[in-house]
Design a protein that fits this description.
Helix content: over 70%
Number of helices: 7
């Protein structure tokens, strides 16, 4: 936690550090190393790292994002007691976007924080369009 956000879990400023580091990330693939660092740690340890040992890193990244979406949908289904497939396609799309950013290093580290935050937010919003369309249709 401290390595990802600069302060220990629960310390004063941990949430603001997470948000600032995530939205101010130098690339969309780096956004996820700061967003929800506890969950990211376990996804990395149990899904991404083992998968990346047997397949290309970009595929392992997409699989990890998809598994994350499945976990989110499983919680939604457990609460609602009905099928819900909203997060899986959204996270799949974000995984593909993160894999592209990782493969073709598009970096905006020199941009001001506000511009980096806008770019990272737009990536999330663009990835959300298709799942929202599916959900509303």
């Amino acid at each position: 936690m401290k390595r990802q956000n600069g302060v220990p879990l629960g310390a004063s400023g941990s949430l603001s550090n997470m948000l600032i580091r995530a939205f101010g990330a130098r690339g969309f693939d780096r956004f996820w190393t700061h967003w929800n660092p506890i969950f990211s740690f376990y996804l990395g340890k149990y899904i991404f790292h083992p998968a990346s040992q047997v397949m290309p890193v970009s595929i392992a990244l997409v699989i990890t994002f998809t598994a994350n979406g499945l976990l989110h949908d499983a919680v939604t289904m457990a609460v609602r007691h009905e099928p819900a497939w909203f997060f899986t396609p959204w996270f799949l799309i974000m995984g593909v976007m993160a894999a592209i950013h990782r493969s073709v290093p598009v970096r905006y580290a020199t941009f001001p924080f506000g511009m980096r935050a806008l770019i990272n937010t737009l990536h999330i919003a663009v990835a959300l369009i298709y799942p929202l369309w599916l959900h509303l249709s």
